[in-house]
UniProtKB/TrEMBL annotation:
Lignin degradation and detoxification of lignin-derived products. GO terms for molecular function: copper ion binding; hydroquinone:oxygen oxidoreductase activity. Belongs to the multicopper oxidase family. Residues 31-145, 157-308, 412-549 form the Plastocyanin-like domain. PROSITE patterns: MULTICOPPER_OXIDASE1, MULTICOPPER_OXIDASE2. PANTHER family: LACCASE-7, MULTI-COPPER OXIDASE. It catalyses: 4 hydroquinone + O2 = 4 benzosemiquinone + 2 H2O. It comes from Gossypium schwendimanii (Cotton). One of its GO terms (cellular component) is apoplast. The keyword Kinase does not apply. It comes from the Eukaryota. This is Laccase. Transmembrane segments: none annotated.
């Protein structure tokens, strides 16, 4: 029989070692106005701690993150920790009026949560209106001490934040669109780490520069923080090896180009294996909507090898056409999860709840005695299954769910479209009022704890054919399959990858196509799924899942924080 004293010592040693490997990481965010110069203009923006982009947060898997947010801006504010699971910390997720009421100007709130079961690149951003255009930053999760990456250790890690810039107050841009019912004004530039690059006016010296040593390997942590811009990213004469997306490891995938939608992250290895010189990195838009204006400009930075001549002209990469869906789809559909790698999650085999959900644009009638700038005098709208989501106004959905308050929401979000139609046929859809006008509602789906959901996301051709980046809060999902046209279960289920599909929190549903995802609802709370094109979320392209408590205290949503903002 084992010595019980020695056994107890062993257990205590394990507990101490486990505790010692985790840390409490604490930050303070002062959110306030900042004047910066871009594109020949001095522009007032809202920023965190006087920097744009905002502070980069570094943690290790298992750490607890505490962020004290002081709202010194003139706007309501919340902060979302994009992609963080928030296991039993739904109160800290951050979407406005979903899990909390906003932090009012002059007020503060502390976010506290543990980061577990994930490694890689995530990010944080404001989740009220369009503030995230300038209120955002990277959230880097490294393995626990003593644990390694599932790829050779890079010489250095480099954060690449792709963004979007307006020569205007972005809150005014959004307000004008909402008031008029028309499209928002397009951005004036894209940016790399806050800098537009030398193709824009007055920007010769406003360009990001990455210095590299020949033969060394660099881990690029790429984040697309743009509000509405899906982007191709490329470095002249260099391949990139993708090793993770959305903080989930992938099989190494070599490509000379990356397509990244708003909300997504990509970790890729760059080897400085070319001749000593300078090479542009560039990002340009991917857009598929015919007749809808978009920012057709290119941002670029430069990769400079040690020893490169200072006056050398960098080599420019050849970028795809703005509507190159084939290239976008090839990249997005070629990724596979790193089966049995760190934090790998098997595909759940049994499905408890199936959903067929259409996503797309539509119209809302113009109010009486108003002039609206949407098509045919209407206002633009967006919907899922012909339900255009509207958040509550007097109480957050999470508070209403937790406290069993009636009258805030209904639990009858449909699991399929109210009408079946030829979803990707623009000729038919653009003239049928049954498809064009969706009611404004606060409908949700209630899920049993630990149930498995399979959701088929079907793009529609109403108004235009677009790639919609759909982001799920509170959980990752497996991407089982994706394709073009109308989803046909008898044919397309044969495409399902149930062995090593990519794992994401944001999926770009192909333009004029579909994607099938599967996830387990094992995190009690209220979780929104929405399009990460901010103009579309403003128009109502979202829905909400309410996950019930599990059978034990360890699977029960805790009490709300005492300093949670009131509405």
């Amino acid at each position: 029989m084992r010595n019980p004293v020695l056994l107890l010592v062993g257990v205590l040693t394990l507990v101490v070692a486990t505790t010692a490997s985790a840390a409490v990481v604490e930050h303070t965010f002062n959110v306030q106005n900042l004047t910066v110069t871009r594109l020949c203009n001095r522009q007032l923006i809202v920023a965190v701690n006087g920097s744009f982009p905002g502070p980069r947060i570094r943690v290790r898997e298992g750490d607890t993150l505490i962020v004290h947010v002081h709202n010194k801006s003139p706007y309501n504010l919340t902060v979302h920790w994009h992609g963080v699971f928030q296991k039993l910390s739904c109160w800290a997720d951050g979407p406005n009026m979903i899990t909390q009421c906003p932090i009012l100007p002059g007020n503060k709130y502390t976010y506290k949560f543990k980061i577990s079961g994930q490694e890689g690149t995530l990010w944080w951003h404001a989740h009220v209106s369009w503030l995230r255009a300038t209120v955002h930053g990277a959230l880097i999760i490294r393995p626990k001490s003593g644990h390694k990456y599932p790829f050779p250790k890079p010489h250095r890690e480099v954060t690449i934040i792709l963004g979007e810039w307006w020569n205007a107050n972005v809150m005014d841009v959004e307000d004008e669109a909402v008031t008029s019912g028309g499209l928002p004004n397009i951005s004036d530039a894209f940016t790399i780490n806050g800098w537009p690059g030398d193709l824009y006016p007055c920007s010769q010296n406003h360009m990001y520069k990455l210095k590299v040593e020949p033969g060394k390997t660099y881990l690029l942590r790429i984040v697309n923080t743009a509000l509405n811009g899906q982007l191709f990213y490329k470095i002249a004469n260099h391949n990139l090896t993708v090793v993770a997306v959305d903080a989930a490891y992938t099989k190494p995938y070599v490509s000379n180009i990356i397509m990244i939608a708003p909300g997504q992250t990509v970790d890729a290895l760059l080897v400085a294996d070319q001749d000593i010189g300078s090479y542009y990195m560039a990002a340009s838009p991917y857009s598929t909507s015919v007749g809808i204006p978009y920012d057709n400009t290119t941002t670029r930075g430069v990769v400079v090898y040690d020893g490169a001549p200072p006056i050398a002209t960098p080599l420019m990469p050849t970028l795809p056409a703005f509507n190159d869906t084939a290239t976008a789809y090839k990249f997005s559909s070629s990724l596979n999860g790193l089966k049995d790698g760190p934090h790998w999650a098997q595909v759940p085999k049994n499905v408890d709840y199936k959903m067929f959900v259409t996503v797309g644009l539509g119209f809302t009638p113009c109010e009486a005695n108003r002039t609206c700038l949407g098509p045919k005098g209407t206002k633009l709208s967006a919907s899922m299954n012909n339900q255009s989501f509207v958040p509550p106004k007097r109480m957050s959905l999470l508070q209403a769910f937790y406290s069993n308050v009636d009258g805030i929401y209904t639990t009858d979000f449909p699991a399929k479209p109210p009408i079946e139609f030829d979803y990707t046929n623009a000729t038919i859809n653009n003239y049928n009022p049954a498809f064009l006008f969706a009611p404004k509602v606060t409908k949700v789906t209630k899920l049993k704890f630990n149930s498995t959901v399979e959701m088929m996301l079907q793009n529609t051709a109403i108004i235009g054919v677009e790639n919609h980046p759909m982001h799920l809060h509170g959980s990752n999902f497996h991407v089982l399959a994706q394709g073009f046209g109308n989803y046909n279960p008898s044919k397309h289920r044969e495409m399902f990858n149930l062995v090593d599909p990519q794992i994401r929190n944001t999926i770009g549903v192909p333009a004029g196509g579909w994607a099938v995802i599967r996830f387990t609802a094992d995190n009690p709370g209220v979780w929104i799924m929405h399009c990460h094109l901010d103009s579309h979320l403003t128009y109502g392209l979202g829905t909400v899942f309410m996950v019930e408590n599990g059978p034990t205290p360890e699977t029960t949503l805790p009490l709300p924080p005492v300093d949670l903002p009131n509405c």
